[in-house]
Design goal:
Elements (H helix, E strand, L loop, with lengths): L3 E3 L1 H9 L4 H6 L3 E3 L1 H8 L7 H10 L2 E3 L6 H4 L7 H8 L6 E3 L3 H10 L2 E3 L1 H10 L7 H10 L6 H10 L4
Parallel strand pairs: 1-4, 2-3, 4-5
Helix pairs in contact: 3-6
């Protein structure tokens, strides 16, 4: 299994949708850079703080520093600090979990495989780990700033058999 690197938005949305456990079920170990740790545990958030701290204490969430940020910082994308560090983690054949469009574009540019909150939820639905996608998307809409265009949401619901 490839190394899995997770940005703060995915950690927060997993906690907000009460589906944080899916990260452990799907990816036995996840890696986050120090900035993502800080973004999720040291700034006031309604969701994610306890879950991230507990995952680290249990040993399946590993905080790992990137070796060289220069290549990522030089990219022509408007990246947040956590995304920059996550993209700079040098883990061979890694999968990046990121929601932000700029982060996804940068991952594609660098040839890094990626998915995000919606990808994790679609996988969970396909594998029968959640009964329905729609209620979770609605919950995220009320608890977080997670947003999908109506076209993307309709396509996701259709893929999940709820369209």
């Amino acid at each position: 299994m490839p190394a899995v690197i997770v940005d703060s938005s995915v950690l927060i949305t997993r906690a907000a949708s009460e589906q944080f456990h899916l990260l452990r079920e799907f990816y036995s170990t996840i890696h986050i850079p120090p900035e993502v740790w800080n973004e999720t545990t040291h700034t006031p958030k309604n969701f994610g703080v306890q879950e991230v701290r507990q995952a680290k204490a249990e040993g399946w969430l590993v905080v790992q520093s990137p070796r060289d940020l220069n290549a990522v910082q030089a990219l022509p994308f408007n990246l947040q600090p956590g995304e920059t560090e996550a993209l700079a983690l040098e883990l061979s054949g890694s999968l990046l979990l990121v929601d932000d469009a700029q982060g996804r574009r940068a991952a594609a540019f660098l040839g890094i495989a990626y998915t995000g909150t919606l990808g994790v939820l679609l996988r969970a639905k396909a594998e029968g780990k959640i009964p329905a996608l729609r209620p979770l998307l609605e919950l995220l809409g009320t608890r977080t700033t997670f947003w999908l265009s109506p076209t993307v949401q309709a396509a996701a619901l259709k893929q999940a058999g709820e369209g």
